[in-house]
Amino acid sequence: MKFLVDKFFVMKALLVILILVMMILSFSFTRSVNNSYKEYYFTSLKSFKLQLTSLRNSIAGINISSERDIESVRRQIETARIKLKNVDFWLRYFEPNAYRRINGPLPVEWENEVFEKFEPSYRREGAGLSLAEISLDISPINKDSLDGLIVKSQAAINVFEADSITGQLNSYNHFFLANRLFLLNLATIYTTGFECPDSANIIPELKLMLQGTKEIYDHFNQSFHSMPVTDEYMEIYEKAMLFVNSQPVCFSSFDQFTFIRDYINPLFALNQQFINEYDVTSVNFNDYTLNNNIKSIFDKSLYTPQNIKGVYSLVEDEKTLGQIRHIGKLLFYDPILSGNNMRSCASCHKPTEYFTDTAVRTALQFDGNHKLPRNTPTLINSIYNHLLMLDGKHVSLQDQGIDVITSPSEMNSNEKELLQKVMSCREYEEAFKAFLKLTPEEKKITLNHIVSAITYYDGSFSRFYSPFDNAMNKGSFVSDEVKKGFNLFMSRAKCGTCHFVPNFNGVKPPFIGSEFEVLGAPEDSSFKTLSADKGRYMINKAPQTLHAFRTGSIRNAKYTGPYMHNGVFKNLEDVIEFYDVGGGQGKKIQVDNQTLAGDSLKLNPVEKKELLAFIYSLNEDIIFEDPPAVLPTSDNRLLNDRKVGGQY
Amino acid sequence: MKSYFRITVILICVIFYIRCTSHNKMEYNLPEPMSAETRAIYMERLEKGKTLYKINCSACHGIFTKGRDSIPNFTKDQIDNYRSAVLMARDKKNHAVATKMSPQQLDYIIMFLSLRKHTE
Predict the structure, then answer these.
(1) Which residue of chain A comes nearest to B47, CA vs CA?
(2) Contact between chains at A287 and B87 (C-beta distance less than 8 A)
(3) Which H helix or E strand runs over A550?
(4) How far is A194 from chain B (nearest CA, A)?
(5) pLDDT at A601
(6) What is the distance between the alpha carbons of residues A58 and A98, in angstroms, rounded to a whole number?
């Protein structure tokens, strides 16, 4: 009996101890987990949602003929924009496609992102605040479509309450990656009016956004003590806020140059350091191309460029790579790659003229009589495009090279003949037999081996920097004229809304897609008709892509004329003039889907000179190489009188 | 007696030959119907994927021995996971080799793993 009581007593004691332990454990857990950060997300999101509801009420009650009613809706939109700025940090990173329906710049965009570039373009619908604000200026105002834009935003917000997204808020990982995107956007689109139709609001909204994001930082630091945004970072960030407050509110007088060089770029460097030190991992495709190991936005390795090695991707030995590059250079100059042994890559992409042809509007066709429809693009920095050719036809440099070599109007060759001719030269034969061993998955030498050697050679000329880069990276001197030119470029001249920092091409953060624009470039300098070239439409038939072309880089632009897809403008002054007047529409050409605003920028001659000075500061210090003295000798004597670089 | 022996040897050889060729034929789950031309392209890519896998992946994932392989039977989810991990360069420590490959080479490997018939 006593034994039984004892047992009962022991069990009771055990139970009490267990309850005590559990109480202590649960107490310590509630103390260590601080939900301040996550709660702040929900509070900010809710506040934005409420504002959208009151915006819709305001739209429902609008009398479209009353100026006062329209103004009150406009004010509601502006309030909503400001509330959005408090959550922009998260929304844009978590789900860019849903964000596009909250504050998209265009009703329809077609996209090919890098991880889906083998697939057809995706149609992405835009809606929300920017488009609603623009539609207030188009009379008569259509109440239903205005309301529809906001209804779509309300639906899109639900995405941001899904577990898959809110779950990420429990860890610190997403924070530093979202912050990186935020900083990159500060350097590219938040100050340019990319998605802010009323330019008077750009700087005021920027101030509020910096303030709102500081709140996010503070809440983050409360919840994640061990992975903090450091004091050093916060100090620079607060200085950036002070700097913006000290600047004029007019965005065209805002000193974008100093803002990026002295504040945003150093903050970016620190954030990169956090990503590495805290071992941050990503589950978001927004981080796909971004490099964690670089310290400046103006480092050319900011995002993964095109693969220049092609089939030789797994080769790492410097000496072997040197041999591949040497053969690539010989092939680049060798007309043996063309059907008649008279044309080489260098015929149009002249390696001493920035790998383009500055003498002609468009190059000669293979037949030697007719002209090709499009201007030869420079190969320098072409590796920073995710899609190649002016219509974005190709996804890799190697595909692009093969297309030109086999195109009947360009080099008119075919794989079988070309390989036979190349292998008839002992130097090539020995080299490619050795290279074949580097690619064990390939059974025989293919056109891809040839083209990959060429892309490895010409791709290597994209590694150089310009005085502007040096000013941003190392603080070296550039003139005030250049700084003014850059500030104009990013503001009133509206160049920066399509030519994005740091490569000044159509690749914008998060650097996963290439943009196309419709400018209304004329057929010739009489400006009578629109160029007949359908552009991107040839690849993706949609009303928005008719006459659209991939945005080129303005790096080295001084030396890469003539300009536009058809080389219609001889010098940069003409190009600036064309943009100043409002593109094709400004020249009274009928362009139905122009993506460039058709009204004049009203730039004065001094401002145009400043823009040019900035563009010239992007001339890179490229080290060009002399052409090879001789080409490899062939067994076929008939092939041995071929000229280095070809005849025409 | 001798002729019996000869017949047996020949029979064994024939069986062995059929087994080997049919084994090769059945190595992949190709989508049907498929033209001979497309089939040839598929097979070429799959073989490239196999070679690349053998050289770059099998040191950790499965061993190739004569005749048979012992590649793990990855599920579709696992393959999808690998694909996105590689795409996003998420796992630089363990899969560094994948970040060096060209997109085309990665595609060959993913295709090989996706269409390869699972071993029992």
Answers:
(1) A441
(2) no
(3) strand A549-550
(4) 27
(5) 96
(6) 24
Tokens of B15: 């069986």
- Which domains does chain B possess? 31-115 (1.10.760)
Residue B102 and residue A311: Cβ atoms within 8 Å?
Answer: yes
Contact between chains at A441 and B101 (C-beta distance less than 8 A): no
pLDDT in tens, A356-414: 999 999 999 999 999 999 999 999 999 999 999 999 999 999 999 999 999 999 999 99
Region A596-617 average pLDDT: 97
DSSP assignment string, B29-95:
---SS--HHHHHHHHHHHHHHHHHHHHHTTTTS--B-SS-B------HHHHHHHHHHHHTT--TTT-
- Residue B72 has a pLDDT of 84
Mind telling me how many Å the CA of B87 is from chain A's nearest CA?
7
Contact A309 B102 (CB under 8 A): yes
- Comparing CB atoms, the residue among B48, B88, B100 nearest residue A441 is B48
The domain A310-463+624-641 belongs to what CATH superfamily?
Cytochrome c-like domain (1.10.760.10)
**Would the CB atoms of B102 and A310 count as touching at under 8 Å?**
yes
What is residue A31's predicted lDDT score, i.e. its pLDDT? 46
- pLDDT for B85-106, tens place per residue? 666 655 666 777 888 888 889 8
- Which residue of chain B is at minimal alpha-carbon distance from A441? B48
Give tens-digit pLDDT for A541-581: 999 999 999 999 999 999 999 999 999 999 999 999 999 99
Q: Which residues lie closer than 8 Å to A573 by C-beta, 6 or more apart?
A: A608, A612
Return residues 76-135 of A near B (CB < 8 Å): 115
**Rg of chain A's alpha carbons, rounded to an integer?**
29
Indicate the fold that domain A478-616 takes in CATH: Cytochrome Bc1 Complex; Chain D, domain 2 (1.10.760)
With contacts defined as CB-CB under 8 Å, which chain B residues touch A314? 56, 97, 100-101, 105
Tokens (6 digits) for A521? 């470039």
Q: Is A441 on the interface with B (CB under 8 A)?
A: yes
Question: pLDDT band at A197, cuts 50/70/90?
Answer: confident
C-alpha A356/C-alpha A364 separation (Å) is 13
**Confidence (pTM):** 0.89
Looking at residue A30, its pLDDT comes to: 46
What local confidence, expressed as pLDDT, does residue B33 receive?
Answer: 85
Which one of B47, B104, B110, B112 makes the best mutation probe of the A interface by having the most chain A beta carbons within 10 Å?
B104
Length of chain A: 648
pLDDT in tens, A73-114: 999 999 999 999 999 999 999 999 999 999 999 999 998 888
Report the gap between the CA of B100 and the closest CA in chain A (Å): 6
- Locate the domains of chain A by residue range: 34-170, 310-463+624-641, 478-616
For A436-487, give the DSSP string. HTT-TT-SS--HHHHHHHHHHHHGGGG----HHHHHHHH-----HHHHHHHH
CB-closest option in A287, A288, A313 to B101: A313
pLDDT value of position A536: 96
> What number of residues does chain B have?
120
Q: How far is A285 from chain B (nearest CA, A)?
A: 7
Same fold? A310-463+624-641, A478-616: yes
Across the A:B interface, residue pairs with CB atoms under 8 Å apart total: 43
pLDDT at B74 over 90: no
Nearest of A26, A31, A156, A45 to residue A90 by alpha carbon: A45
Q: Look-up: residue for tokens 């036809």?
A: A393
Q: Strands, E, within A4-156: which ranges? A: 108-111, 122-125
